[in-house]
Design a protein that fits this description.
single chain; 137 residues; mainly alpha; 434 Repressor (Amino-terminal Domain)
Length: 137
């Protein structure tokens, strides 16, 4: 069972029509058309707009608008198997890298603080006394 957006995308591609052309003819915003084709109808302003956009899209492709809207009213098929996220193989490496990076940043900050805030001692002359720091004169 197809969603209305998948059906419209298939028909549009079969006719060689770009989504931009559909947007120009129907005056439906391009992001809304993308949301329809990708099945993200919850991103659209409301059910009245969704139905209007579907009808306009169907008319643009010379399809029966009511057939397309009927697809909207059908219940979504239940997945036969729950989808689980793919295992993250780099998770262990990231768990080690994050604290190590944090430690390096802290040490670099401390070193930079010591270098910038440590008072500079005046240079010493050859006899061990402090050399004058001002200009002669």
């Amino acid at each position: 069972m197809q969603t209305p957006g998948a059906y419209l995308r298939t028909e549009r591609e079969a006719r060689g029509v770009s989504l931009e052309e559909v947007a120009a003819v129907t005056r439906v915003p391009l992001p809304a058309l993308r949301s329809i084709e990708e099945g993200r109808l919850d991103e659209l302003p409301g059910e009245v707009f969704v139905r209007g956009f579907l009808r306009a899209y169907a008319r643009c492709l010379r399809l029966d608008p009511e057939d397309v809207v009927t697809l909207l009213d059908r219940p979504a098929p239940e997945p036969s198997m729950p989808l689980l996220p793919a295992p993250d193989l780099d998770l262990r490496r990231r768990r080690i890298a994050s604290p190590a990076l944090l430690l390096v940043l802290i040490l670099a900050s401390l070193l930079l603080t010591l270098v910038l805030w440590h008072p500079v001692a005046p240079p010493f002359s050859a006899n061990g006394t402090a050399a004058p720091t001002g200009s002669p004169g």
